[in-house]
Amino acid sequence: MKFRSLIFKNLSRNKSRSALTIFGIAIGVAAVIGLGLLTEGLPSSTQNALTAGVADFSVIAKTNDAEEGPGGPGGGMGGQQLISQDYVSQIQKISGVNSAVGVLRSMSDLDSSSTSNSSSNQSTSGDFRSMTTLIGIDKNSLSMDDIVITNGTVFSDENEVIIGKRAAERSGKTIGNNISISNQTFQIVGIYETGNFQDDSGIVMSIDKLQNLTGNTDKISLILVKADNGTDTSKLATTIENKYSNELTTSTSLSGMDRMNQGLNVINTAIWGISLLAILIGGIITVITMMKAVSERTREIGVLRAIGWTRKRIIKMIIGESILLSLIAIVIGMMVGIGVVEILSSTQILSGLTPSYSVLLFLKGIVVALLLGIIGGFYPAYKASKLEPTEALRYE
Questions:
Q1: Torsion over CA: 266, 272, 278, 281 (sign)
Q2: HSE on the CB side for 101, CA within 13 Å?
Q3: What average pLDDT does the segment 368-390 reach?
Q4: Most confidently modeled of 222-226, 233-237, 333-337?
Q5: What is the rounded distance in angstroms from the CA atom of residue 331 to the CA atom of residue 17?
Q6: What does the pLDDT look like over 14-35, one tens digit per residue?
Q7: Element of type H or E holding 298
Q8: How far apart are the first and last CA of the chain?
């Protein structure tokens, strides 16, 4: 009988033992694949959860440091220069940009009903400390500026506004009340929060209406940009700066980005730990299963040694069986790993965590399974080959 035929026959001769071995290796493969599907997508799922709908960076007018006023580049007021609204559609067409939204920021003294242009350094009247931030943005893009309505609804026309939580507390205004801005009356239809002290002390309205109030037709303070999933935001920001090197620059929250990067580094480290743990578990299961399977064949190995089989040939036979069992276990383990993850995902137990499928992950599972089969089979095979024929034949 040919050597390879003998390997196949050994596996089919004792189906229960082969099934147990396949089951043990399949558990290891399922652990690697299942945990891999979850952990590979963990960084992107976490990043998406933290930045869902929120702009990745803003685009503002390029100015000299000496020209920047109290608000600075990111404030949208003080000495910041306004830019043409046409830039929004131009940036939207750049590869890698998911969405671009124009925002106009201004300030108003509600007590004196005066409104300042965001391009001027001082208000037309009133104390700067009593000024209220006015934000003009499209009502369908509030999430881009991290504006969350906590009570009421979004403004539906140009005579409605939403007010920040701190502004509402300071002014005693609430939903349904009217508020006067630049001698025009607006109805408050919602209360919002952003987590930013200045913005939560402001009022948000239609960008068209704020442009009309301030006389800044087709002008905006900044452009909020959201990148496509998988796009490097730093490279995208650089692309925009290079394209409009003389007119525009980009601005990001460096502290927020640093904290997010640190958090993702911790997650990636945890992923490596989990993957190694899965491999360790799979390896232990495989070695124990293979040792049990080989120990049950001690007498058979003694017979083979007695008829002249060399230790090397016995090792090759057992490792060959291990590899064949591993190949079968790979298919079963992958099906089990994917199936369990998909079931958990469909039941919302893993809410917010998206499984990440990749060729690299499946190649990793295949390589791990084969290594587990070889390593798991080598020690028991080597141990069995060291038995003397007479000792093995006496084994019951």
A1: negative
A2: 27
A3: 72
A4: 222-226
A5: 18
A6: 777 778 777 777 777 777 777 7
A7: helix 298-306
A8: 26
Pairing of strands 160-164, 178-181: unpaired
* Dihedral class, residue 394 (left if φ above 0, else alpha if ψ from -120 to 50, else beta): alpha
Cβ-based neighbour number of residue 305 at 10 Å = 22
Here the tokens at position 59 are 């685009």
Question: Among 190, 191, 171, which Cα is nearest to 130's?
Answer: 171
The residue type found at 258 is D
**CB 166 within 8 Å of CB 141:** no
User: Taken in order 374, 376, 379, 385, is the CA torsion positive or negative?
Assistant: negative
Which among 31-35, 68-72, 114-118 has the top mean pLDDT? 31-35
**Whether the Cβ atoms of residue 158 and residue 121 lie closer than 8 Å to each other:** no
Under the banding of pLDDT at 50, 70 and 90, the label for residue 162 is: very high
**336 against 252, higher pLDDT:** 336
Least confident stretch, 134-138, 228-232, 269-273, 348-352: 348-352
324: Cβ contacts below 8 Å, ≥ 6 apart: 7, 8, 11
Query: Across the strands, what pairs with 227?
Result: 97
Phi, psi values for residue 319, rounded to 5°: -65, -40
Q: Report the distance separating Cα 222 and Cα 286, nearest Å.
A: 59
Domain ranges within the chain, ordered by starting residue:
3-48+261-394, 57-251
Is residue 342 over pLDDT 70? yes
**Arithmetic mean of pLDDT over the chain:** 76
pTM over cut 0.85: no
Separation between Cα atoms, residue 137 and residue 162, nearest integer Å:
11
Q: Given the structure tokens 């009988």, which residue do they identify?
A: 1
- Cα–Cα dist 355/347, whole Å: 14
310: Cβ contacts below 8 Å, ≥ 6 apart: none
Task: Look at 70-79, 225-234, 239-248 and tell me which has the smallest mean pLDDT.
Answer: 70-79
Q: Tokens 């940036």 correspond to what residue?
A: 91
Helix axes 3-13, 15-40, angle to 10 degrees: 90
Question: Mean pLDDT across the stretch 84-108?
Answer: 93
- Around Cβ 394, how many Cβ atoms within 10 Å? 11
- Coil, strand or helix: which one is 335? helix
Distance from C-alpha of 294 to C-alpha of 21, rounded to nearest angstrom? 10
